[in-house]
Amino acid sequence: MQVHRNHIAGDWVDSPDAAANTNPSDTRDVVGRYARASQAQALDAVAAAAAAQPRWAASTPQQRADALDGIGREIADRQEELADLLAREEGKPLAEARAEVLRASHIFRFFAGEAMRLGGELLPSTRAGLTVEITREPVGVVSIITPWNFPIAIPAWKIAPALAFGNAVVFKPAELVPGSAWALAEIISRAGLPAGTFNLVMGRGRELGDALLGHPGVAAVSFTGSEATGRKVAQACIGRPGPMAKFQLEMGGKNPLVVLDDADLDVAVACAINGAFFSTGQRCTASSRLIVTPGIHDRFVAAMLARLQTLVVGDARDPRTTIGPVVDATQLRQDCDYIDIGRSEGARLAFGGEALGQVAGRPGHYLQPALFVDTDNTMRINREEIFGPVAAVIRARDADEALALANDTAFGLSSGVCTTSLKQAAHFKRHLQAGMVMVNAPTAGVDPHAPFGGRKGSSHGPREQGRYAAEFYTTVKTAYVAA
Ligand code: NAD
Q1: pLDDT at site 1
Q2: Residues 265 and 197 reside in one and the same domain
Q3: Measured from the CB, is residue 284 less than 6 Å from ligand 1?
Q4: Are 292 and 247 found together in one domain?
Q5: For residue 444, is it within any domain?
Q6: DSSP assignment, residue 78?
Q7: Which partner for 83 in 46, 97, 418, 475 could form a disulfide, CB atoms 3.0-4.6 Å apart?
Q8: What is the CATH number of the domain that holds 54?
């Protein structure tokens, strides 16, 4: 089987090692073989990016916009093929995979516009005869490290602004999803960027981390992944010799969805089912804690159980499937361990939680979505990120306690409230301690042109996406000019 190679300094290069990528919906199916870069190759990629970056920084906004627009258009033109690859390697149902691919296209095209819009400010000085000019410059070389759960959208929302604002990129995708990353890199490689402006190094994070984080040529690191890895990334960016790297971390979540007595039941159930179980619960914005007040609790649980019966677990590429497999055996084990932990903590498993082994004769990492009830917020299943199709209902005394429980977490990425009261909606919107608040909408599912990020243990550094992305991918220069 052909090995998909890394892209360094404008060339596709062989690596000493390669790994196969398997389909979680059918573990007999090998998606492809992908090179694993050596540390020396990661260093080559950083050096190539450092050499190319000044040329790219000197390109005109129109050149950068055209390149990004072309990438965005090709992604949209190839939506079906890329969605199929994404669903095959990650297990996301086709409808969701299609939406993710389209979103990646929209992100590139949004940042094509942002490349044209980057401006500065002119301030009158407090001192006579001076003016103050404020401009934004590229940061330099950016290492981009991404997780497996959004194989094309997360790389897009980091790579597009990095390139739009004149930076060079070294991109290291997650080990489990090199296929989508390689396809994206191949499109970018034909976009007319100076050789070395964009580099792909696939491989293991712990082996390539030193080069991608510790090299003084790397000016900034944009990371999305687990909190444990995020801490390592932060330490490496600070602890390295020479100047520290600027860093941005998007990490885990334990997102609450509050359902108040006056909620529209159908809306609340639709939000909870989508937020907790779509994408197999493998979203940093998943609603894993469903905090429900007494007047609606029993009706909500009954309606959730009825709705859960209708979900179809199966092959991600089967159009009837609503819940795809878990991404791999390790994640499945983690999900099942947490289901055992929940039971041993006294939570009642009201639905699902069975590993299915196979569906329609296909061996895969299938897990029935699991709903716990009678849980409290001190249980590990309500404190630690599970990252699977597992949600827990917590009964709150009243709206005040629901708000307190929602905020009683180490994380703060997304949060939601279902209510028909304008007053309660405003109150929760103001007091939920999270980067994103959803009112009568699922905690997961965001727009490509709006800022994305969290608080507390979920995020560190400036927001991603939308025009807020410029905070990370540019550095501000203040010039004082005597007339
Ligand atoms: P992970 O932390 O295991 O890996 C993320 C990336 O870091 C991978 O590319 C990995 O190879 C790399 N990596 C691992 N060790 C490294 C090291 N020492 N140095 C440099 N890079 C290293 O996370 P994952 O399992 O791929 O993704 C799941 C996690 O991502 C969950 O915690 C989820 O909440 C989080 N996530 C967060 C967001 C967000 O925006 N907040 C979005 C999606 C996923």
Answers
A1: 83
A2: no
A3: yes
A4: no
A5: no
A6: T
A7: 97
A8: 3.40.605.10
Distance from C-alpha of 61 to C-alpha of 59, rounded to nearest angstrom? 7
284 is catalytic: yes
Question: How large is the average pLDDT for residues 443-471?
Answer: 97
223 and 299 fall within a common domain:
no
CB of 85 closer than 8 Å to CB of 180: yes
Same structural domain for residues 38 and 95? yes
Active-site hit among 284, 336, 418, 464: 284
Q: What length is written for the chain?
A: 483
Task: Quote the ligand 1 centre to 224 CA distance (angstroms).
Answer: 5
Q: In this structure, is residue 230 part of a structural domain?
A: yes
Say which residues have a Cβ less than 8 Å from residue 298's Cβ, sequence separation at least 6. none
Question: What is the 8-class DSSP label of residue 254?
Answer: -
* Co-location of 240 and 263 in the same domain: no
Q: Domain tally for the chain?
A: 2
Same domain, residue pair 315 and 385: yes
Strands 26-36 and 348-351: unpaired
Residue 56 · residue 197 · CB < 8 Å: yes
Q: What is the CATH number of the domain that holds 401?
A: 3.40.309.10
Assigned domain for 98 exists: yes
Long-range CB contacts (within 8 A, 24+) of 434-438: 434/255, 434/458, 435/459, 435/463, 436/285, 438/271, 438/414
What is the mean predicted confidence (pLDDT) over 281-306?
Answer: 98
Q: What does the pLDDT look like over 231-279, one tens digit per residue?
A: 999 999 999 999 999 999 999 999 999 999 999 999 999 999 999 999 9
CB of 146 shorter than 6 A to ligand 1: yes
**Per-residue confidence (pLDDT) for residue 466, from 0 to 100:** 97
Q: Give the dihedral sign, CA 415/421/426/431.
A: negative
Instruction: Report the separation in Å between the CA atom of 124 and the middle of ligand 1, taken as the mean of its atom positions.
Output: 45
Can 418 be counted among the known catalytic residues? no
Asked if residue 285 and residue 217 are part of one domain, the reply reads no
Question: What order of strands is seen across the sheet that includes strand 218-224?
Answer: 11-13, 6-8, 198-200, 168-172, 141-145, 218-224, 246-250, 459-460
Assigned domain for 452 exists: no
Establish whether residue 252 lines the binding site of ligand 1, counting it when its CB lies within 6 angstroms of any ligand atom: yes
String of b and e for 84-106 (b: at least 16 CB within 10 Å)? bbbbbbbbbbbebbbbbbbbbbb
Range of the domain at 158: 3-251+458-482
**Whole-model pTM?**
0.97
Residues 80-119 have pLDDT tens digits of 999 999 999 999 999 999 999 999 999 999 999 999 999 9
Residues 150, 121 share a domain: yes
Name the token pair of 461: 């550094």
pLDDT at 205 over 90: yes
